[in-house]
Amino acid sequence: MKLPVAARAVGVTAAVALAVAACGSDNNAATNTSANGSCASGSVTGQGSTFQQNIEKQWISDFGTKCSGAQITYTGTGSGAGIQQFGSGTIDYAGSDVAMKPDEQSAADKACGSTAIHIPVIAGGIAVIYNLDKVDNLQLSADTLAGIFSGTIKNWNDKRIAADNAGTTLPSTPIKTYHRADGSGTTSVFTGYLDAVAKANWTLGSGKTVNWPSGQAANGSSGVVAGVKQTPGSITYAEVSYAKQNNLPTAKLKNSSGSYVDLSADSVSTSIDSGFSVTGSGNDLAGALDFTKMTGYPISTVSYVIACTSYKDSKKGAVVKEFLDYAVGDGQGQADTLGFAPLPDSLVTKAKAAIAAIK
Questions:
Q1: pLDDT digits (tens, 9 = 90+) for 314-341
Q2: Domain for residue 74, yes or no?
Q3: Number of domains in the chain
């Protein structure tokens, strides 16, 4: 299973210009109304994953040039909030980095009046972002990362960090961690990785929220990264474009093969190939991540859009259908410049089939 040739290195655009958008906060909505073209018309609203927010903004802008009368708004509030609002029937689609739990699925099905399905729309990696003077090539194993975020490794010159960074002079600076305060799919992926790979040193489990024993909480990816930018000696986890926007370095992480690997389109591709599988049935493409099998960048994931199979308002359904078809088609070409990886061809084929059934 190979990614399209379009992406071989991850680059990042610091901001995307939209008709109505401000990129400084996860809570800014991306909105665009198209001026040309002919396709479904109407307005739809999406909410959720901050991981996929930057590429959602780009898709909305580009789709707006193709579809006359289509107005789409997406707000990055976190996967948990997106799932909750979708289940309450207040938005038309949700962005999420994790699959819904059974009770969330039931609420979504009820709100839709039909089965709600997960559609992978983009792949990417969770970057470990840090602020440490004169250290620009940090390497971390899962066990060390678990010690840092569980609060048992307290200083940057700890012998466990030093063991991952032979030949690097590390300062005695105290470590300050930042984690998400909101229900976050990014947190679920990050803690899922630690729970799977560093069990001996990680006792907090995994999920959209966990009981962090230490560190500073902040809302959204932009919140935790802003905290790191302002705080020497700090570290967090977020989608890689937030690191690039803030000129912060990212750590190389030790993968299942024992190599320290940078986050790139190729390394994400390798891990999705080896560690992701679809577990849903029919047009539901919810999947599972096996971090113990990821031979590329070890915290790689897919991000979903959760949509209804049959919308109560058929006009909204038509807009959602055409927008998602664009996102998993031509929209994958934007992955490289925004710090993501395009979906593998096999997932694109499945996603397009699922989208085609939306009405």
A1: 999 999 999 999 999 999 999 988 889 9
A2: no
A3: 1
Q: In sequence order, what are the beta bridge partners of 247?
A: none
CATH assignment of the domain containing 230: 3.40.190.10
Q: Taking the model in full, what pTM does it have?
A: 0.83
Going from the C-alpha of 164 to that of each of 25, 136, 177, 254, 326, the distances in angstroms are 34, 14, 19, 9, 43
Structural domain contains residue 339: no
Q: Which domain holds residue 250?
A: 126-267
The residue among 303, 292, 350 whose CA lies nearest residue 1 is 350
71-109 pLDDT, tens per residue? 999 999 999 999 999 999 999 999 999 999 999 999 999
For the purposes of burial, counting CB atoms within 10 Å of the CB of 149, is it exposed (0-12), middle (13-18) or buried (19 or more)?
Answer: buried
Residue 322 is assigned to a structural domain of this protein: no
Measured distance CA(317)–CA(92) in Å, rounded: 8
Q: What is the pLDDT averaged over residues 255-276? A: 92
What are the φ/ψ torsions at residue 94 (nearest 5 degrees)? -120, 145
